[in-house]
Each structure stands twice: as C-alpha cells, then as structure tokens.
Design brief:
By secondary structure, the protein is an alpha+beta fold. It is built from 6 helices and 14 strands. It has a domain of about 180 residues.
C-alpha cells in the first residue's frame, strides 16, 4: 500500500556515508545553551505489550482449541502490529548524526549543518531548532546529489517536541515519485504523564496524502487500550487489564472476551 523503496534507499545510503562531516556555518549571538537533540523513538514512547509477551497460557486438555481463542486472537494481533509504532526508528541515525556537531544561532533558531561525500555522491543536512512558548520546533532538511539524481532541501522530518521529550509530534515525509516533492508519509504523537499513564497515536499515509492506517494506544495504570483503524478492512480494538488479566478483542461488531485465567467467556 505504501511505496518507500526509493526513499529507504536514500536513508540507507546516507547512513553508509556518515564518515567525514563538515560543519559549515558561522557563529552568531547565542541566547542560551543549544537544546539537546530529541529522541525519535524512546522506549517510553512505545506501547507496553509485555502483557502479551509474558503470558502464553496453556489450554486445558478438554476442548483445548476453543478455550483460549479469544486471548490468543488478541495477542496475535497486538504483537504482529507493533511495527506501526516503531517504524520511525529508521530516522534515528539521520537526526542523531548531527548531535556531535557544533550548533550556531541564526535568525532566531539553532542550526546544525554537516555534509558527507562518498564515491561521487554527496549529502548535506541542516537541522534547525526554534524555541516556542513551551516547546521546540525541529526541522531536518536533506540535499542529495549523485550526478544523476538531485534533491534540494527536502524536509525529511519536522516536529514540535517538549523540552523533556515527554510529549510531542513527529511528521515524517517522503519524496513523491512523480513530482519529486515531499509529501507526508507517517506521523507519531505521544503524551507521557508517567510510566503507567501515556497516550500514543500514529498515522500512515498513502500516495494521495490520505490516512490509510491509524493506530492508537492508551495506558491508564493497569488498563490498556490498543486500536487499529483501517480504511479498507475491519478495525480492531483490544482492551486488557495487566493486573486482573481480563480483557476483550472487538472487530467488525463482534466482541470476544477472556477472564483472569485467559479462558474464553461470554461478554457482558
């Protein structure tokens, strides 16, 4: 459904070229310390699916195939779809490659610039951070030239991130194969109150800029909710309690429940 082959090739090429950076900007008046580079995807910015990873209950000998179907159906969906929250990790080397560079303050924002060359291929990167009221606005621009393909100031990612990284949103762009212009590919938003209270939302976009897949996760103490929302197939909603072990899986209007022993039960 999504075409990232050419785009992922550019990312892989860039990571292979990170060997000899060149910082090319000049100093300006610095109002304070430059902000630390934010994380693209930390562990606490991901859903906690350890409940399904840790629990693999055995079926009773009688009617073995039926008794834990509901739990295992939910487990399979949750674990198989973890990737929708972790896709952003491929961008991490792109952003952090500049964290060792010196930042300059220009036109009201911090700027990191660096470039790499390898076998007639060149990549230059510019990262900016502008302080907002309570957050920082981050942008990364990427230029590439190999003699045949040329990309200039492609905004590969942008985001509004809190200084402590506990809340924010990243927007990841890809290059349109027809226009060679950037278009939205993926978004990731999160709000972390504590280790046991967090919310996360991700969206995948198709070639027309329309949302093709959405996923969201919410944890409130021991209660967890995970939703997968599609445009062309039934949605999935999974709810579980990590203390009581009870939960349910709902899809296409059907709700399937399990009890504290992971056994199938009728839903209330």
């Amino acid at each position: 459904m999504f075409r990232y082959t050419k785009y992922l090739f550019f990312i892989a090429l860039f990571m292979g070229m990170v060997a000899c950076g060149d910082d090319s900007t000049g100093p300006d008046v610095n109002p304070s310390e430059a902000p630390a580079f934010p994380q693209i995807l930390s562990e606490e910015m991901q859903p906690d699916f350890s409940f399904f990873e840790d629990n693999q209950p055995k079926n009773f000998a009688s009617n073995a195939l039926a008794e834990t179907n509901n739990y295992y159906g939910a487990r399979n969906i949750a674990l198989a779809n973890q990737f929708v929250f972790t896709f952003a990790s491929i961008y991490t080397p792109l952003l952090l490659a500049g964290s060792a560079e010196e930042a300059d303050f220009e036109d009201g924002m911090w700027v990191w610039e660096y470039s790499y060359n390898y076998e007639n291929k060149s990549v230059s990167v510019r990262v900016t951070a502008e302080e907002m009221a309570n957050d920082y606005e981050w942008n990364m621009y990427w230029s590439y030239n190999d003699g045949e393909t040329s990309v200039e100031d492609y905004k590969i990612l942008e985001g509004i991130i809190s200084p402590d990284g506990k809340s924010g949103e990243w927007i990841f762009n890809t290059l349109d194969e027809n226009t060679s212009e950037e278009r939205i590919a993926y978004t990731s938003a999160w709000d972390i109150t504590s280790d046991s209270e967090k919310m996360m939302d991700v969206n995948w976009y198709d070639e027309n800029g329309e949302v093709g897949l959405s996923a969201n996760y919410e944890a409130n103490q021991s209660d967890h909710l995970f939703n997968m929302l599609y445009t062309d197939e039934p949605d999935h909603s999974i709810n579980w309690n990590s203390e009581t072990n009870e939960g349910y899986h709902e899809s296409d209007g059907n709700q399937l429940c399990w009890d504290e022993s992971f056994q199938d039960i009728a839903c209330d």
